[in-house]
Amino acid sequence: MKCSRQKCPIVRSLILVLLWTKSCASVTVIIDGVEVDCTPNCACCKGGLARCGIRSEGVENACLDGCVDGIYGLRCHNLCPRNCSTCDQINGRTCYTCKDTFYGSDSLCTKSCSVGCYGQSCNMNGTCQCNANFDGHMCDTCIQGKHGADCLNDCDYQNCKCTAGSDCDSCKTGFYDKNTFCQTPCSTGCLNDVCNDNGSCPCRSGFTGFSCTECISGYHGVECNMRCPSGCSGGICSRNGTCYTCLSGYHGEQCNNTCSAGCSNKLCTREGICICKEFFIGTFCDQCVAGKYGYDCQQYCSVGCLTSHCARNDGSCECRPNFTGLKCESCKHGQYGLSCDLPCSYTCVEGTCSRSDGTCFSGCVDGYSGYTCETYCDSNCAACQQNDKSYCISCFNNKSGSTCGCPSNCACNGGDDECTACVNNYSYPEYQCKCHTNYCANNCNTCINDTYFVHEGLNRCCQCPSSCKDAMCSSQYNCLHGCEDGLYGYSCSNNCSDTDDMCLICLQDNGACTKCKNGFYPGTGGTCTACSEKCIDNECEGSGGRCIAGCVDGYWGNQCENHCGALCNTCNRSTGDCIDCILTFLYGPSCNLSCSQSCIRSRCDVMGECLNGCNEGYTGIRCEQQVLFSNASGISEGLAAGLSVIGLVVGLAAAMVTMYILKRRRRVTELKAEVHERQTSFGTGPANTDGNNQYEELDKRERVTPHNEAYEMLQTSTNPVDNKQEEDKEKDYEFDGGNVYYNER
Q1: Which side of the chain, N or C, has fewer Cβ within a 10 Å radius?
Q2: pLDDT, tens digit (0-9, with 9 covering 90-100), for 158-171
Q3: Residue from 376, 342, 370, 367 nearest 356 by CA
Q4: What are residue 198's phi and psi, to 5 degrees?
């Protein structure tokens, strides 16, 4: 603009006034909390007066590093314009930063920050952190549901943006349809959760459709990022993953279940129902028939299963007794066999064996061999190979070799185990290297004890032969205390069994047997004689013949050589006294005493004690005490007389039995001499003659029923009998003229 000649002097004057005014105005700034006047040169230099000098432009008293914030100029005398906090250091025309609450460097920071900015402070472009209820990049609008200058008032509809309480200008992000006050949320498939007022929107990846509510083909899920199940026909499914149709061989909502292996042709309905193949049962053909298991139900359940059913997947089941293992296919420890009911040999190592045949698969315990370890190793082996009982693995008494024939301290040839040399300073290979100077005393004139003898030719002491009792000797051929059991002879080199197979121990001088094997005892001449057949189980002591378990019924004595009394059922093995009587109306050691007539039916035990109680009017264990009745007792004189008669009859019967027994004994005595040749040796005591021979002779003379019939019950067992049997037994006997007769029925 050009000024007129009249106006130009005035304008120049105003400019000079302004410049003078400006130059005279004081310029201050706060530095480190102190107000500083910037009028003096370099007073407001950045870095202080120390950074004041001549600039490159040749200007003196100029600030070398520029001015503090809010000041510009070479000497830092001028304030930055308007609301600038920092500005161009030369001319101040460009604003770099604004003072608090202002923004807009291109407009010299003349724009105020929004009241919605936190602390009313904002960035150079006006953006800021919002106070509560404010929204937008510059916090210059209210959040949805709020309105008013301070955004403190509520909209009537919270999903709406409003200028007044009841209107709905637009929907907040994520909702649409302001006509219904923005009650409908945008689809999760909408990009950035933003949709138009009709719900349409650009779709996120994986979504499709007008409102982006569907997944693209082959996907499903909330985020449409999951592939449809592989069992879906065509790979197509609904958004929730449900297949429209399944591929062949699959079933289920998502077609992720395969049809059972038991389905014929592997085909099934959507529910998994199908027609079963062979060996399969069940609605879904997923179970095996009884007794089968496995993927194809082709395997058999173990016989060890408690029931006929087992788990299809692995055949597991609850085991029957003696079976163990997941499938109950193994026998419990120590058992074998198809039913695991056979015991493994106790000679198997750890007591275990093969279920099929009882083979001891872990080997045999020492001393046994064979597949089932039931074969003894050769006697010289402490242990042997399982498949060869003659091949020794270890030996007794420090011996060695495959047959344990090589004695200790011997060196033997290869396989014959013959001692050919001695080791360890032992000598005398012919005596199996049992001689050594360590056993000597007094320069080998004597030995350290009697288990060694002096070998004069070797000047050493040798071990006594093992055949000597207590291994004590005076020489190689003279045992001090006799022989070990089973050996005899001067040098104890002979076996007792060589003279008698049944002999265990014999006399050293002549080999006469003193102890026999079970079932035999030393008889006349020192030979082993069989135990008496009257011994129970034919067992007797091997040294004296004494019956170990006692006698069979009807015999007594150490060797059961004596008959029990004629009227005894059984008798004491040592004394011959009757233990019980054949006839229950007799008692006593010889069963020759009559029971009291006061006993009911005159019956008593071997001690004379009444078995069934007392007749009326008597008491006591033998019914020998009479009960005294008064006249008021009601017992008539006739009843008393009847009882007396009964007692008299019983007494006469007992007397006749006694007379008969005494007469028989006298006859037995007379016959002893006549039948002596037919008798065997008898001990002392009652009934010491052969009952069969004596009674048969009596029967001949008195023409009574033969003894083997009349007294056949003498050899019966000792088991108790009932009253009926006792009555029948008594009817077998008849008394006549002092004799007892047997009634044969």
Answers
A1: N
A2: 888 888 878 888 88
A3: 342
A4: -100, 5
